[in-house]
Amino acid sequence: MEEHFFENVPLGLMMMATLELNGFPWWMIAGLSVFLIAGIHFHTKGINDGELAFKKRAIGNRLTLLGLALLAVANISWVSYLLIASIRFATSVYVN
Predict the structure, then answer these.
(1) For the residues of 15-68, what is the DSSP string, one character each?
(2) How many other CB atoms sit within 10 Å of the CB of residue 54?
(3) CA atoms of 68 and 12, how far apart (whole Å)
(4) pTM summary value
(5) What's the rounded Cα separation, in Å, for the pair 30 and 62?
(6) Which of 7, 54, 56, 81 has CB 3.0 to 4.6 Å from 46, enough for a Cys bridge?
(7) Angle at 23 between CA 19 and CA 21, to 5 degrees
């Protein structure tokens, strides 16, 4: 149980912090983090319920990886958007 938590949660928290520092809307960060939290919850329930609850562990793993993937895509797309917006602003300013 601890391995799943210690491998995935710090990475997710760093990606959430990066989004927050870059000005991403907080409600979208909260929405993306739901997948990470639900994944950790289901994985933990699957471990605590024993061998019969392997499906819960698999669902938890998938949700956790989905949350990490969505956070990574959000980081890449948000930074790309900010870069394109700053380039457009820089090219629209005329200095005489």
Answers:
(1) HHHHHHHTT--HHHHHHHHHHHHHHHHHHHHHHHT-GGGHHHHHHHHHHHHHHH
(2) 12
(3) 6
(4) 0.84
(5) 19
(6) 56
(7) 55
Number of C-beta neighbours around residue 62 at 10 A: 14
CA 62 – CA 67 distance, rounded (Å): 9
pLDDT digits (tens, 9 = 90+) for 36-71: 999 988 888 888 877 777 888 888 899 999 999 999
Distance of CA 36 to CAs 58, 63, 66, 88, Å? 14, 6, 8, 35
Question: pLDDT confidence of 1, banded at 50, 70, 90?
Answer: low
